# Entry
Amino acid sequence: MQRKERRRIIDLSKIQPALDFDKTTHADEFTLPAYQRGLLIARAYAFLVDALIVSGVYLIFVVFTVSEMSAATTLDRTILGIYGTAYLLFLAVYFFLFMLSMSQTKGMRYYGLMAVNRHGAPLEPREAFVRSFGYLISIIPLLFGFLWAFVDPEHLTWTDKVSGTFVKRID
# Structure
């Protein structure tokens, strides 16, 4: 006995209307990995400028405070630990205040960079605070959070990932 095969035609237009691909939103250029990869060297130099500014000001503070210590006070591990912790806090406050006020540090401004949210707008206060926290957790493990951008497929630092922000070049 020979079996007849019938074709069944399914019309999807009744179930699913036509897709309008022209109305989809596209990712902003600054969110793409290739764009972020192009900023890695400028970001590294901007961080070095910021670290030099903070270190210079902090060094002046250390010189003045050490010179005022009594002769009986020795610089033991406890005091050095306090100075090291104070430096990290000073660095975090530096980044927080600049992110809060301008969405860029002095080093970023010098190299024409700015931190922005996913929509390309300057940071809101909450975003600036979270980004500053990201700076802190990127600095503590010997700057590994910043070096991560060189191996990350998206070329983002831990700061960027934690805060959901990006760095873009400004004119």
Q: What stands out?
A: The beta strands are 113-116, 166-169. The chain has a mean pLDDT of 89. The chain has seven helices and two strands.
